[in-house]
Write a structure and sequence with these properties.
The complex is a heterodimer of chains A (about 110) and B (about 110).
Chain A (H helix, E strand, L loop, with lengths): L3 E2 L4 E5 L4 E7 L6 E7 L6 E7 L4 E4 L2 E6 L4 E6 L8 E8 L9 E2 L3 E6 L1
Parallel strand pairs in A: 2-11
Antiparallel strand pairs in A: 1-3, 3-8, 4-5, 4-9, 6-7, 7-8, 9-10, 9-11
Chain B lengths: L4 E3 L2 E4 L5 E6 L6 E8 L3 E9 L2 E5 L6 E5 L5 E5 L8 E8 L9 E2 L3 E5 L1
Parallel strand pairs in B: 2-11
Antiparallel strand pairs in B: 1-3, 3-8, 4-5, 4-9, 5-6, 7-8, 9-10, 9-11
Classes of the chains: A mainly beta (about 110), B mainly beta (about 110).
């Protein structure tokens, strides 16, 4: 039972354009969502997060949107840069007692072409 | 501020052996979580420790165990290794500010079981 799904294994965009990465979840108890970026041979690096009481959070070039009714969130990267090429993971947690227990999606490989 | 340190970075074992992996969290972080990353299953939660107590446990067999010491350093052990245990084992630490908990990951320990 995959509670967090990233249905697009890969995405390719041109430098300077917008990258949109999508994530769906099934567990309505999830109340905190995070995006991580991962390069080969390194651990995941935190990008941005959003609480379920919000529908949008911005940090520089990165914006996360949350649609609770659709159980869907997305990460927008504008403008995309070649250094953004990596695997992006969506993750979720449910409740204060589970904040160390993240449920991850399978990841989306983003390639930004110069 | 030093990041999350995992040792060893790479190791090779044979079936039936056991292995111990170590994790030193960021100074001041009291929660340590462990994850397994494989190509087929993605990133899966193993367990979380806080103040030397296991706070959460994932769906892994009893061969997988862990502990946390009074200085928050953590170890995980896998006994009677199987080929399927070959994976990247990631440790993450956090301050555990409930409700807005960002995990910081180490670079991982790459285990190969032959």
């Amino acid at each position: 039972d995959q509670q967090v799904k990233q249905n697009s294994p890969s995405l390719s965009v041109q430098e300077g354009r917008i990258s949109i990465l999508n994530c769906d979840y099934t567990n309505s108890m999830f109340d905190y969502f995070l995006w991580y970026k991962k390069y080969p041979a390194e651990g995941p690096t935190f990008l941005i997060s959003i609480s379920s009481i919000k529908d949008k959070n911005e940090d520089g070039r990165f914006t996360v949107f949350l649609n609770k009714s659709a159980k869907h969130l997305s990460l927008h990267i504008v403008p995309s840069q070649p250094g953004d090429s990596a695997v992006y993971f969506c993750a979720a947690s449910a409740g204060a007692s589970n904040t160390g227990k993240l449920i991850f999606g399978q990841g989306t490989t983003l390639q930004v072409k110069p | 501020k030093a990041g999350v340190t995992q040792t060893p970075r790479y190791l090779i074992k044979t079936r039936g052996q056991q292995v111990t992996l170590s994790c030193s969290p960021i100074s001041g972080h009291r929660s340590v979580s462990w994850y397994q990353q494989t190509p087929g299953q993605g990133l899966q939660f193993l367990f979380e420790y806080f103040s030397e107590t296991q706070r959460n446990k994932g769906n892994f067999p009893g061969r997988f165990s862990g502990r946390q010491f009074s200085n928050s350093r953590s170890e995980m052990n896998v006994s009677t290794l199987e080929l399927g245990d070959s994976a990247l084992y990631l440790c993450a630490s956090s301050f555990l500010d409930s409700g807005a908990n960002v995990l910081t990951f180490g670079a991982g320990s790459r285990l190969t079981v032959l």
